[in-house]
Fold each of these.
Amino acid sequence: MSDVILELANVEASYGPVQALRGVSLSVFKGKIVTVLGANGAGKSTILKTISGIIDPSKGQIRFESEEIQKRDPDWIVRRGIGHVPEGREVFALLTVEENLRMGAYTRSDADGIASDIETVYGYFPILRERARQEAGKLSGGQQQMLAISRALLSRPKLMLMDEPSLGLSPLLTQEIFRIIVRINREKGTTILLVEQNANMALEVADYGYVLEVGRIVMEDTCKRLLEKEDVQEFYLGMKAQGVRGQRRWKKKKQWR
Amino acid sequence: MEEEKAMEMSASANHADTVPRMFWHGVKTRAAKTIFRQKDFGIWQAVTWDELGRIAREIGMGLASLGYAPGEVVSILSNTNKEWMAADLGALGAAGVVNGIYPTDAPIQVEYLLFDSGSVYAFVEDEEQLDKVLEVRDRMPGLRKIVVFDMEGLHELNDPQVMSLDALRALGREHDAAHPGEWERRIGLRKPEDLAILCYTSGTTGKPKGAMISHGNIMATCAAYQALFPQDENDERMAFLPLCHIAERVGGEYHALYTGAVLNFVENPETVPENVREIAPTVFTAVPRVWEKFYSGVLIRLKEAGALQQSAYKVAIAIGYRQAKLREERKPVPAGLAFAFWLARLLVLNNVRKAIGVHRSKILITAAAPIAPDLVRWYMALGLEMLEAWGQTESCGAVTGNPRGGVKPGSIGPMMPPSEVKLSPEGELLVRGPGVFMGYLHQPEKTAETIADGWLHTGDVGKVDAEGYFYITDRMKDIIITAGGKNITPSEIENQLKFSPYITDAVVIGEKRPYLTALVMIDHENVEKYAQDNAIPFSNYASLCRRPEIQELIQGEIERVNKTFARVEQLKKFRLIEQKLTAEDEELTPTMKLKRRLVNDKYKALIDSMYMKEAA
């Protein structure tokens, strides 16, 4: 399958004695948006960190364009074409917006290309042009998120890892961010692996989805079909069949089918 | 007068002839001793006989205050827990009849059971179970009140038909104060021949049937159990099988009341292994599935252990097997071997026992389903006594059992006096004795089919050896006759398959077919581990089942089993059930066994695919 850009096989990862990933295998197809859904602590962020080399897997392989990349240094992986938009933005607070963007282009030396890419991201997020000389720490949460995405784009990634871009954002801003994510995917052909708690949003924009529970994948399917699954509806979309009393607090057992 | 007599009877030693009298006698004599434990916020909390007596009395008197008449039926819809037992004893003490409903049952089944049993009160565990009853109560004119154990999330509920267990107990206290002597009177009302409990049989064919069990049935069974599985107030037991099932109800709850052994209610079905390790029961009854799980758990952990530990285990268990074999053959164990075994236990096997939580167990009892003889031998090799017993709801539980010091793996043991067991000319096991039930509720024809000429027809086919040990070969209706006319007993093959750590359950198919095949349910945990260890990528359960490497793994297990059978009994093909089944699924019994008939129908297409011509 030549169009698989990223493949995880039997990946296990731990934080000290705590095993976060208990054998995860998944495939991301080129040019698609793939999402990983899961509750707090399911291991979603760990998957992204393991891919971008921040954490080394204790077992398993990660193949990017058919090349094994596990246990490589993060900067090597960035150069290889994987950009990471971390959870909680992590912009350089004391640097200006533009300096942040240039940090994203750290691995590149084509000044013209960088300049044109900065123009492109200003096109996506005009507010960043306005704030170009401002310290990133003084931006609002939504603007920081835009900056974090832009910074990742500056490395011209083939694959972007996005960790909860909607975190802490208003519904309106969330929609805007997601619109741009789709636009980046369509216009630049950038493949996106998206981790989200906002399942509604993620399933709407993504093509394919995996559901992660305590370090294991319990379900995978096209997002269209995932939306129809009873368990996804109840546990991720907050839709519940109404009980006889018009309310229901108890949760049924998860079966993932 | 009546009252005095009742008191006198309930005070007479352990020869009480009804459950309420036995219970109340225990409350009087064992007052401050512990009857059971259950965890509360993570800590095991003991309840004394006195406390249980008080709670049950409040429940019983609460029912009485609502107008509960002797002989009326209440149903309990809850997981196995202390409230279940208290409600059971409260209702029985108030001279009532108690029916248990599986908490995994769907509303439609709950409706049938409430209706068929004629329940006037329903005890439900919590909001989830309450909703099931509320959904069907419109069609249940006879149901007067629903009593909820756990009111979490329901405090704002304002429904005249629903009340909390606490509210019922408050009613009971008032009623008790206003009617002194009424509780004692009710305790004495029921007679041994009176109906005590209803146990609905799972009913793989047609509607479930309500087996009527009398007080006399229960008391006789408790006495017989005590002779074979002796225990007392110093013993610790686990309670985790469904209390609606005769095994836990009589073998667990009532036998504990009879002997004073302490019951320990597990937190939930998932925490059984953990809770067992915490309690370290001295007498431990479980179903084969649990024993299989412990065994495969040890095997899997061993694979992770170092080479030294692995070879130490190999040596130690080999010594254990040698000693167990001599015991099985009733030969003396030479001093050298006994010493070697002592050493093997000290250095290795005790750790294995501890890892399971059976290091203090004097006896392990296995029942409710057939167990692989090799599994029994493994526990015997650890130096444990595993006693297989056999019976059914209609015989009020076990009527045969292996005695201590005389276990024959593969046998269900000799009959347990005073019950008599014999073979019919067709090889069916027939039972006669004080445990044989009163019949099926509202179904005299079915009763007449089951009890004929004074003998209970069990439907199990078997044989008996010279020493009176019985062996079950199969359920009469399960015997497969292949297209070639060969009679096959599927459970023998299935038991061998289940012995594999990678197979949880299997159903052998072949009725009127040219060859035998099987549907296999994998052991999720162990197969997943195998996949991880061997770098076999998979995502979810179904994709795991579809991996060619996993198909090969199971194929290997099938071939291993095939070697032990004659050609016609060998499995030619198999399919995995790709959906992870849970207790809520109709394919499984509450004890997590695959239902043969249902599986045969439901997976017909999958089964047919094993009989297609390859070329097509």
Amino acid sequence: MSHSALDSGTAAEGSKSAIDPEPGQPQGVTGQPPRKPRRSFLPYGLILPAAILEILIHIGPMLLGIWIAFISLTQLNLTNWLNAPFVGLQNFVNGLNPESTIGQAFFSTVGRTLGYTILVVGFSWILGMAGAVFLSSNFKGRAILRTFFLVPYALPAYVGTIAWAFMFNQRDGAVNQILVDTFHLFGDERPFWLLGQNSFGAMIVVNIWQLWPFAFLMLMAALQNVPNEVYEAAAIDGATLWQQFRTITLPMVRPANGVLLMVMSLWTFNQFNIPFVLFGASSPKEATLVSPLIYQNSFGSWNFGLGGAMSVLLLIALFIASVFYIRMVLPKGADND
Amino acid sequence: MIETRNFRILRNVVLTILSLWVAIPLYVVVSTSLKPLKDVAGLFQWIPRQITASPYLDIWTTVPLAKYFQNSLIITVCATLCSVTVAVLAAYSIARLQFKGKRAFSLTVLSTQMFPGILFLLPLYLIFTQIRNLTGLQLQGSYLGLIITYMTFTLPFAIWMLSGYFASIPKELEEASMIDGTGRMGALIRVILPVAKPGIIAVAVYSFISAWGEVLFASVLTNEATKTLSLGLKAYASESDVFWNQLMAASVVVSLPVLIGFILVQKHLVAGLSAGAVK
Amino acid sequence: MKNPLKVLSALTAIASLALGLSACGGSSQQATSDTITYWASDQGNSLDDTAAKLKPSLDRFTEKTGVKVNLEVISWTDLYNRILTAVTSGDGPDVLNIGNTWAVTLQETGAFEPVEGKLLEAVGGKDRFLKTSWSTGGAEGKTPTSVPLYGLAYNMYYNTKLFKEAGIEKAPVTWDEFVADAKKLTKDTNGDGKPDQWGFTAAGASVSANSHQAFIRGLQNGGSLFDKDGKPTFDSGPQVEGVKQFIDLMATDKVMSPSDAEISQGSQKVDNLINGKAAMMFDQSPLKNFDARGFKDWGVAPMPMVSIGATGAAGTQSHVAGINLSVFKNSKNKDNAIKLAGFLTSDAEQVALNKAYSSLPVVTGASSDAAFQTAEVKAKNDALANHAMPMPLIAKEGQMETLTGTAIKNLFAKAATGTVSEADIKSALKDANNQMAAAQ
């Protein structure tokens, strides 16, 4: 959770001005030298509000959700859920047995969601990076474009998805109007974008449209700290644009990247709203993601143990992947700042 | 990067493509919202044959938008303010102070992002019910319930991002201030916050946007008196899917406040971001 | 000095947070003893429209009993989840509407007042109600936990102008006639070589509408979704045949636009009929849409049947559709809740409400009212009273709808983009059948 020495340095220079206006602070009572932190409950006091909320709204429900995976919670005992029978690993056996129809659906859905996440996050990052790189140079209209690119992100997720659903309509939609009527692609047959295999691609397009401005914003913030002199020096040394990008830009955004890629991946992997608005409660089987599948298996059938078991398995997998990722990618030293 | 000729050409091409990619869906929404119903029913027309404001007038008679708007504003503003305050405190603690269990706390907060959000829905409701039974505090159907839900949902990323931001601010700045006798909290308020302004605005924007557009939790945690604007839009969408012009008009109306607010704040965001850069 | 300062600052931070929270929050309403909460489903053109049409009835109730009603109209997309949270937390309304196909599932939760004793008395006993509608109140052989409130049934609606143009004088009666007429009505009106007017339209992506057709078409062909022992038989011969008839409208008869595979909401198909893009459709209650759009050129007929004059299960034209009403067992105001149940099912209110929502009265005493003597209502009433069977009265009804409906949705998607063989249909239904069996 620490940034590299390089951008700390630049931030330092930039931030000097922020404290300059108040040079003559009244002297403290004792004028102690900077203290080494010692045993104190200040750190705990500061995280306390966050901790209470997290426990109440996140950790509590999460633990409850995990517990539900081990009980049989159906319409028969919802009213008395505290006393629902403990069934051990039965939900896991029922839902995750790769031989059964439900288990097969689960594992193929996990694979599909993984592919989905890689595509969405990958393209969002590339678009965001392209926007950030080109908008960090000075030119007329830059400020307007910068605001404009962020609009899809600022739009309520619901609105963006509805707009795309309208555009993807097979008979009258704008997408087929451009592709088929204007450019005469697909041999003048109007493809269905929200059915079958195509629906997977359509969902990816909608998600990228909504997510890329977020990558753009974060990468742009990270790029603000790269002084132009560095590029100038590199250019004098004869570095091509691509070499400048690889040797200067990429390393500069690395600290921001670590966090960005991880949260974007987690959000995308657990995506629920976009398929729900595009397809309703049951997605085409070629486009079913993990969250809608879990929704179907818990809210659709009021069998919460099964959905819970699937979630717990995913939680474990994502947790291991995240810890691994944090160790590998994020810079060391978060603990001793 | 250095502005060679190739760079400029590439820049124009890339930025044009990105602009079109962003603009087309927005244009479809706005142009559709201005068409009469008969022109919406057929094949999509890029250039409207006729422009009318009536979809914008009609939606006000079918949905109590003004009331929903007020609810959304109260809930979103409170959630954003509270979320930023809580996140700043926690992030500062993580970035600057030593304490036992820091890593555990960070990892736990992070792990909440790994659970499918949809599965929180029922357990959260159950916990709210238990709280009501124990303390009499009504969280379902009240502003308070949604506010603390939304602020918590945005906390992990906010804490994460801000602690990174704080960590990148050199310690010498605070130490200088603390020598002046302001103490830790004084240093946080006088030194760290001004420097971290872009990060704080970014986090606030993120919280606001997440809360403004949320529909799933709002659909079970609100009642007639506390319904939010995006829920109004959702109900509207599910019952009048042939009146696309009105639906798009409602979408514009729901989006406009958050867009205007965003554009206003965005100036500061950009200014703040630029202030951090060295020319 | 410094430690107290730290403590102080931390405390202020927390206190200001708490203050902020409590200032923002706190708009909870406590129900007083003469107020009950009523969750109504969305029966009108919008949530507000539903509330406005319900208000006169509720005002009369308040006037009569002195009990105020706190009304909340909930959209269909949210109602099931709202009921779920209410059931689980025990924190719900006093009286609520449910889709009648949910009745058995909700009955099993034990969260709703059985219709016996005081409640049965308040609604005037079961003999006042249409037999078919009453049967949806709960599982067979158990005390029901819901009473019918609004009745609905499938009819076939058609565009009379398109019928006239095609020279069809009489609505089709049998399935074969229906398909033949639909073929006549499918044509290319603008000369581009592709049909742009279709004989039939349906919401091919609507899971629930598809599952209703699986149920009705299966019965007409002599099949059923479950056998006598309650085992799913989605892939039995007659069931496959029934689903095939429906899919074939798009796949082989080509009387249904491939675009219909994408329609997930009924109102879009009604729109097709109004715009003259399609000539016939199956629907339960399109009148409010017709009226809202000022559309007059429509006719109505019973749903086509496989064999003419069939009776019993094979003569099914509709499932027993409708909305039921339940009283929440946890209600702190049960006496008044029961009063409201009795009031809304009284003859006078049945007339007023079903007239307002263009649905059917579920009590025989109201059916004779002048408002229900039009051809449309009579046709629907006949279907509901004499040619309707309730959807399977099982706890897993929701899952059955999802599985069969989704299978048909995917088959339509396949038909829209390619071909569908009988083997495809059989394998899709077999898949659904296996999942149903695993879930039971």
Amino acid sequence: MHFGKTAGIKAIFPVIIFLLFSETIFAQKIVRYDLYVKDTTVNFSGKPKRAIAVNGQIPMPTLTFTEGDTAEIYVHNELNEETSLHWHGLFLPNKYDGVPNLTQMPIKPHTTHLYRFAIIQNGTHWYHSHTELQEQIGMYGSMILNKNKEPDIPTVPIVLSEWTDLNPKNVHRMLHNASDWFAIQKGTTQSYSEAIQQGYFKTKVANEFKRMTAMDVSDVYYNKFLINGKNESQLPQFKPGQKVRLRISNGGASTYFWLTYAGGKMTVVANDGNDVEPVEVDRLIIAVSETYDVIVSIPQINPGSAPVSYEFLVTSEDRTKSASLYLGEGVKQLASPLPRLKYFEGMKMMNGMMKMNGDLDDMGMNMSLNQMDMNVVMYPEITGPPAGNKIKETAKPAEMKGMEGMKMDDNKKPMESGHADHNMYNSNALSSITTLNYAMLKSPVNTSLPRNAPVKELRFVLTGNMNRYVWSMDNKVVSERDKILIKKGENVRMVIYNNSMMRHPMHLHGHDFRVLNGQGINAPLKNIIDVMPMETDTLEFAATESGDWFFHCHILYHMMSGMGAVFSYENSPANPEIPNPRLAQRRLFADDRAFHFMAENDFATNGNDGEAMLQNTRWSIGTEWRLGYNDHHGYEVETHVGRYLGKMQWLMPFIGFDWRYRKMDMDEVETNLFGQRNTKDKRSILSAGVNYTLPMLVTAQAEIFTDGIVRFQLERMDIPVSKRLRMNLMVNTDKEYMAAIKYIFTRNAGVTAHYDSDMGFGVGLTLNY
Amino acid sequence: MKSIKILMAAVLLLSSILLKAEIKNISTDNVKIAGSCALCKEGIETAAFEKNISKASWDKDTKMAQVTYDNKKTSIDAVLKKVALAGYDNDRYLAPDDAYGKLEDCCKYERAVKKDAVAQKKMPEHQHGAMASTDKDAAADPLKPVLDAYYAVKDALVNSDGNAASTNATSLVKAIKAVKMDQLASEQHMIWMKVMKDLDFDADHIAETKDTGHQRDHFSSLSDNMYKVIKSGKPSETVYYQHCPMAKEGKGANWLSQIPAIKNPYYGAQMLNCGKTTETIK
């Protein structure tokens, strides 16, 4: 980690001298790093798995520069695949921004690429691969840009990250196929039996009525969380009474982290590489890709007594697991672990906020800047322990009692009751725990934009669909929208509203924006803003650069699904790193156009029953089959090619092809409910139809075949009966019906018992991919 | 006979299976774990137990536990961390304050290292402002200790902590008695003479009970009298006079605070920031 810098400086010494002679402009120090990107095997969870290490380490080495230096970073790609590196939060020439197929072509396997730019800012930043899902498996590291004169206080760069034993490509595929395996691993299935046990049956029904599946604060189950690549570690060099500055970057691909400290309050002094007025908090959440500088102190001890080390606890937002760093030496003082979330309370809250058409309704609360965290209803440390079935009435969460009290008072003091609504989700008002929010950040300097510049206002609505894992802005993915043109010299103002059910850390490349948070001319500068569901945030920045800059959600799987846009400066000179812009654009768009494959087959006693599907943002190609073991049971294959319409994608018109063969006894002819006859003996026919998702997540399907036969079908798949038990129901106008119950053993296997009007009762092993 | 043999064989086989289900790769460590009673023993052993992976046997007198664990699946550190998270300080880990706080009363063992650390930790935070200003302002404002003790009672009520309110009220009684009246300005002196008895009365009652409901009743009149006294002089630090219209079943109640933000002592977490500052006394 250190060799790169010192050795690099020595190696580059002749170059410096050369440069001094040739060009006096480059009188600053050149700092060179050589990064060797290589495949490696890691073992974070007990199983050896593939990862990518740079210079043999995960996280990647900490790169340290001083404001005024010139960075020369040689990336040696020793992988058998492409790569790239993005310098997160840095102001640099567009061609060194490191977005493959946008600001440069990918770094080909076994080639070297040079990033060379002047360091014109200071602060805590980080860097990561912007190629596919490489960031998930090790390609993240700290990038510390020091001021010429840093405050004299010991400093520790910290990168937070997470590890999954699954190949991230598989994670991405599973997310797109609505696999609930992660929920099973996390224990967050929110099935009907759990709902009944905890007294939330109505809530669960209301939730499904509004066409929502189980709610969660994060999508992926992780095996381990890491602080600088370790789940637990200790820094014994710090002594009682000492203060330490932690320069924290969240290099996780999709995890928000709660930061807490066992030794007292933490003082936040910088955010996203920009200083803020110090603010003392008990805890803060760090969004994916944000950075915070936090000062903590190691408490004093009585003279003569043994030293104590204090836990800096990093807990994933879903609170499944945590990572610890102990500051100081001696016996370890633990921080209180964060209690499990009350998911059904969250579900109840979501039900209240969700309109039937899938839009969110903030009930006039004008939410912004993380000040009102709706998830507070799920935090036992603030709204009380979970209400059990029996004691539910007496032990309602505190804020609800407050609400009722307010309601009784309504006629007398309407004003006060508005006040309570406002407080209902404000964690700082509900408890003595101080949680950081963006309104508390204040820049120590005047950050106002140049006056008299023309203002361009852009509005974005963050949109998404959890069931199909489609994430977009204004219901358009990257490949579906044109570049957003901006002009050098104008002030760009962005108003972002989150109409989706997840929070999104939106990141703008190459610029810091002001967050209009009520601090006037001291509005803080950031390059990531976390927008919670229903929040509206206003940002502004001065357009001073040129070229193409990516603006996207930094949750890796959301970005790869197309949640982003490109800001493009009008009349920029051509980027020499992009020799063929059309090819580059096609490859950029390929990310969110990719199809995801899934397949499932039930090897049952009465036949084979299964389906395979290829889906992307808008298209679905699916085949279902029912193959009996004899001619009498018949064989049947239905293929549908459809396109999802609308933001919520409840409607899917399709064309289909139906083939079936079955040997009937003499004189046996089936009629459907409409009196239409159908031999079903041998049929090979085209069809057209439409799928529509009804409340309770029932799929209604109407289909007309070229022989004039009409079929109407209702189907509900994967009713979560208990943690691992799923039920499927189907009935149609051909007088066919099916009921199945499946027990999920592992990610890829389960046991199914089903009854089918054609094939009778069967039990079988279900394998799915 | 034959069937008995078969049965015995079966029992043998079964027991061997059962034995196999015991902890493998055994390591045993003797460690010190703090605790005080039989309840603690149960708590410690439950926290350390994980089927086929770890278990502990703790002795109340020696405070020593024998921890047996599967060294391939876990470590002594991991076991002791769980014990600490359940509230019991040990060789490697100290319990979080709230885990210790949740222990049964009989189990609240004396915290050796921790106590010092906490005292130290709280000192700079809590008394920083207070201490620094007492040194300087004690002479200037003889009511300062009373006000500080009053704030301590208020903060305890904000946290709905009846025990702390009672303890702090005891200090308040002492502080009230310790005021040197001759150092008060004449106007303030007069008012102090008028309300001193009532202040003492309310503070006494808060100290006597641990029921926050009863304490809050007295706190309301205590606050009104405090307001009269403080307003008649010039406090060394800004005092915020705050009002919640809903306290006392809609009658409303007031309190004094050292901070402008609302932290309501009449409701605690239920409605922590109902209210507003009605007057700022400088």
